[in-house]
Design goal:
Number of domains: 3
Cofactor: FAD
Family: Belongs to the FAD-dependent glycerol-3-phosphate dehydrogenase family.
Low-confidence stretches: none
Bound molecules: flavin-adenine dinucleotide
Structural class: alpha+beta
Protein name: Glycerol-3-phosphate dehydrogenase/oxidase
Order of helices and strands: EHEEHEHEHEHEEEEEHEEEEEHEEEH
CATH class of the largest domain: Alpha Beta
Organism: Rheinheimera baltica
Largest sheet: 10 strands, mixed
Number of helices: 8
CATH superfamily of the largest domain: FAD/NAD(P)-binding domain
Mean pLDDT: 95
Number of strands: 19
Strand content: 25-35%
CATH topology of the largest domain: FAD/NAD(P)-binding domain
InterPro entries: FAD-dep_OxRdtase, FAD/NAD-bd_sf, G3P_DH_FAD-dep
Length: about 350
């Protein structure tokens, strides 16, 4: 079949690749350049998402852990195994036994070919791994492993796989409208396809709206990151004081990546880190590390928008699952994670094949 994929983020590229591998003739349309939006503004983690276990998202975590293994194996030059510390203090929100259960499940879901099993470190051992952590009140830390990537480069690697599989990639080609009978309106006029896959991330519902098609409710939530000077080779998963949220402090390209926030976003606002988000992130950092960082320590910042499936008042607790919805011959993808992009692409392909 002749298929149009709209959106050149990781989900659009992975869907296009899987569709082409299944024998379809695929054209992908990206309004700007490939891999410049949400998919290049992530926390750079290939992970199952330890915190989603608390929300009972077992299917998602298990799938993401399998996908984590796939990325690490297939693109070793752009990915790596990252040791992460979860320090526990006297006043930590989660108890040691709770974390133990979560990490045991996490390792079990990763399977026998996982990337390393968790273990408990005493306070002294944790401080040896991460000397900048505050020692006062530290009881110890769990050490576990996840994957880390260069999201932009890994996405461009996926674009290469697309080209090799015969996908035609069109950059600077905004789709203005879609029609339920699989027509796509480009600058040059309407083009007919057999199926259209709308993977425009946070903009997927806006495209449906401009096309006069029914929309799915999505919550748009901005997440910002700061880049700070380096503090070591271990990542950290940290509880935000007084909140159920967690924040990551990770080594990344000779710097420290600190994120993220959760702030409601409208598509007509600029997607950028606000001063309030910067202060919030620095406060969390300074709660855990010495020497402290000020706004002058910030080397750079960036932000992206999560399109989350609606239904949770709290963005932290909103599902990271994806959903696929047909309207005529148009399939719209909502939600999802970077790590699970290939699995999503397989689902898209299965749905397209079943629709014949
Ligand atoms: C702050 C933050 C941190 C995250 N961290 C992680 C993480 O560490 N690990 C993880 O697994 N996941 C993470 N995620 C989730 C992950 O980044 C996203 O799920 C994923 O990048 C979404 O990809 P996408 O292709 O759907 O969207 P996008 O990357 O936004 O791509 C959509 C594309 O569609 C294009 N487009 C829009 N409208 C049109 C149109 N009309 N015509 C043509 N093109 C159009 C846009 O230009 C864009 O390039 C994070 C998300 C955020 C926001």
């Amino acid at each position: 079949m002749k298929i149009a994929v709209i959106g050149g983020g990781i989900n659009g590229l992975s869907s296009a690749w899987q569709l082409a591998l299944a024998g379809h003739k695929v054209s992908l349309f990206e309004r700007d350049s490939l891999m410049q939006a949400t998919s290049a503004a992530s926390s750079k983690l290939l992970h199952g998402g330890l915190r989603y276990l608390e929300q009972g998202e077992f299917r998602l975590v298990r799938e993401a852990l399998q996908e984590r293994r796939w990325w690490l194996k297939k693109a070793p030059q752009l990915t790596r195994r990252l040791p992460i510390l979860y320090p526990l203090y006297h006043d930590s929100r989660r108890a040691r036994w709770q974390l133990k259960i979560g990490l045991w499940l996490y390792d079990s879901f990763a399977g026998r070919k996982g990337i390393g099993r968790h273990r408990w470190l005493t306070a002294q051992q944790a401080l040896r791994c991460s000397p900048n952590l505050k020692a006062e009140g530290l009881q110890g830390a769990y050490l576990f492993f996840d994957g880390q990537m260069d999201d932009q480069k890994l996405g461009m690697w996926m674009a290469e796989q697309c080209s090799k599989a015969g996908v035609q990639l069109f950059e600077h080609s905004p789709v203005k409208q879609v029609a339920a009978d699989a027509k796509v309106l480009l600058h040059s006029g309407w083009q007919q396809f057999d199926r259209v896959v709308n993977v425009a991330g946070p903009w997927s519902q806006q495209l449906l709206q401009h096309s006069g098609l029914m929309q799915q409710p999505l919550d748009l939530v901005r997440g910002s990151h700061l880049l700070l000077p380096p503090i070591g080779r271990y990542g950290h998963m940290l509880e935000v004081p007084g909140e159920a949220r967690i924040v990551f402090v990770l080594p990344y390209q000779d710097k420290t990546l600190l994120g993220t926030t959760e702030v409601r976003q409208h598509l007509d606002e600029a997607i950028r880190c606000s001063a309030a988000e910067r202060d919030y992130l620095l406060n969390v950092y300074n709660h855990y590390f010495l020497p402290t960082c000020t706004k002058d320590s910030v080397l750079a910042d960036f932000a992206g928008v999560r399109p989350l499936l609606s239904g949770s008042a709290n963005a932290s607790k909103a599902s990271r699952e994806y959903q696929l919805n047909w309207q005529g011959q148009v399939l719209t993808v909502s939600g999802g994670k970077w790590t699970t992009a290939r699995a999503l692409g397989k689902q898209v392909t299965a749905q397209v094949d079943q629709s014949v």
